[in-house]
Amino acid sequence: MSNVRNDLIHAGRSLAKARAFTFVCVVSLGIGMAPVIAIPYLSRILTIHPPGVKTEGLVEVLTTRVGPRAATDTWSYPDYVDLRDANTGTALVGWTYGQSEVQTASVRAMFVSTNYFQTLDVPLFRGPGFSATAEPAVILGYRYWQNHLASAPDIIGKTLTLDDVPHVVAGIAPEGFDGHVSGNGDVAVFLPLERNPRFRTAGTDRSKEWVLIHGRLMPGVSVAQARAAVSAVTSSLAKQYPSTNENTSGIAAPYDPFGNLVRSRIAVIQALGLTLTGMILLVVCLNISGMVQVRSAMRERELSVRQAIGASRRQLIQYLLSEAIILAGLGAILASLVLLNFPSLRSLFTNSPLPPQVTAALTLNLPTVGFCVGLCLLTSLAFGLLPALRFSRPVILTALKDDAGVGGRRVGRVQRVTAALQVAIAVPLIVLSGISLDRVRSTVTSDLGFAADLVYAVPLKVDSEKIANADFRIRRVRDDLAKAAGVAGASLADGLPLAFRGDTVRTALQPDANSAPKFIPVHVTRVDNGFLNTMGIPLLRGRGFAADDRAGTEPVAIISKTLAEKLFPTAEAGQELGRRLIFGNDERTTQTLTVVGVSGDFPTAQMSSPREQLLLSLAQQPSQELFLIARSTPGEPPQRMTATLENAARDFDPENRGFGTAEDGTPAYPRLVTGVWLRQHSVDDFLTQSAVAGIAGSVILTLSALGIYGVVGLMVATRTRELAVRVALGASRRRVIRLVLFDVVKLVMPGVVVGLILTAAFIRLKGEDMGIPLSNVEYVSYVLGAAVAVLVAVVASLGPARRAASVQPMLAMRSN
Fold this sequence. Notes:
The chain is of the alpha+beta class. It has 25 helices and 21 strands. The strands form three sheets. Strands 1, 2, 3, 4, 5, 6, 7, 8, 9 and 10 form a ten-stranded mixed sheet that branches. Strands 13-14-19-16-18-17 form a six-stranded mixed β-barrel. A hairpin with a 2-residue loop joins strand 6 (159-162) and strand 7 (165-172). Helix 16 packs across helix 23 (733-766). The longest helix has 44 residues, at 675-718. The chain starts with a helix and ends with a helix.
């Protein structure tokens, strides 16, 4: 132990002198080790139970895989009622998440059965609960009560309007309670399950599954007994209702804070994440290994002296590994400091502290320390063992003559392959970043297939339960809008080109009796009769939707030119009309449509998504979320069109209820959507793609630069005598540098070529699905991607190349 301590002290002093080498290694190891160390922290976070929930005896009711039916955690409301009323030895609660409107603001709601809080044994902070009144009731979330209702002490019993319906405030949930399941954000209000909009539309439909079920075991009942009881009930339901429950087989499983099905997916994600982060760390270790070998090669005389005065090979290995252990330890400390300070940094920038239980999970504890120590040892072996083995047997006579011998060693093949492989991974990302920039240029300058500069739209929610005669009123508003000054046309649709919204549904030609349908995914938009004219999309063949295409008549469809070419590759123009399509993602929702028209080509939800488009008649396929669309006459001032659209929207709904939210909870669309905004939205999307690909490629190239430095540095160290002889024979400094750089280019060119081939293959395979076709800039992106990779390799090798050019010829003479 005394020798180990002395080796560590000497290694620390040696690394302190080589500050640049130490800094680069520690930062690189910190970057590589941080994701790996984060895995145990994430695992601890994913096992946190929601505060205030007594989990002992809780179970979750699931369905198992039977035949074509996959395992699910959702049930229809009638199935939930039957399970609740059956003798399963479990008190069951039904629940689901949703949204509710309070004072024109949409808040997160949890719809629960009235026995929810009693069954879960969660005492309310205040109030009697749902059972105290037969009127529509609501239980407020603690934070919502504090932040939006000013902690009103007399709120219990008062009325709060939710979704335009007065609700009696029956309680306030305990502080920090957002439901019994983790990872679902803040819950503002708890409402009875029967107040969920899906209950009104699918309350008695056993084919509509939307209720989740948990329960608490009765005294003396085990999970196995509850599992058997639930299975017996669902078997009985399968016999009673074979059309909907034939393949439904339920079980009771022990409670999991994220849900049993989600937990299985999380386990797979964790394993995949650990594998990927481990591979990244391994690549970093291989890069650092090359740098350590360069350092060891330059210290071979020191190692030979140690061997000459009696040091054994084991002692030399121990000495060399001491530096690796210190570097790995410093890297782990750096990574841990970043992770441990993440909560405070996040709070500083977002002004929203993490929940206390999450902060507690991110604190340092003994298992995490043990994991870090084990990771340090493995990491130090990964990048330090090979150099230690290679340089623990120095050739004493050669090494003691000068610093140039290095025993005839050569750069390992592993380091060469690793450096080239990293370049092969980085090049496609750099090229794709450039191609995304070309998409930006094309999006800005290309004809999009519709009158983008003249289109204006307002997102509206057509909810018949909140707006009287909503269908009639929205069509009246559309007709009035079409007659307004400066408006060339008006229409309705549940989607717009480039609006990042829409359904993808399987579609196929109706097959013959002896053949199977060949389904393809298509983008579906439900549109009004004048949609094509309003959007400025040409109708190439057939007809548009007419007043006769209404509910109860034969379903019809208009297909885009791109979809027509895919469905009818050999048909002549016009032969598509009258053909019948199968439309639907499963057998229960499959419909048959008749093609009545073929439209021009125009983008779907995104510029980078497939362009196969299927238009359905809005009268036959109604939707509650619609865009009220208008096309202005050329030269009409945008301000006047904006005012016209806003007035029309206000006529329909004074509160102007929009729809759609982004991931951060903000509205997905502005109050007025313009064609200019749609184009700019796609431009921003491509810029984001370019930035992500460019940053990822840059990070990988930076890591590859470390590997290239190590390979070239060791290459130079092993060829010092040869280079000195070349200088003695008249080679200039520039020629020596050029010789080294030529070897660098030979090192990285296989990776560059492989990367370009992979990029070209990807573009050719996915080019049809990437929106607008590529221009000649694609080839410029290939050249720039290859040039950037070679330039980074050259810059990384300049240090060793300059060292090679500084070799004194006398070194070669003295070593003979």
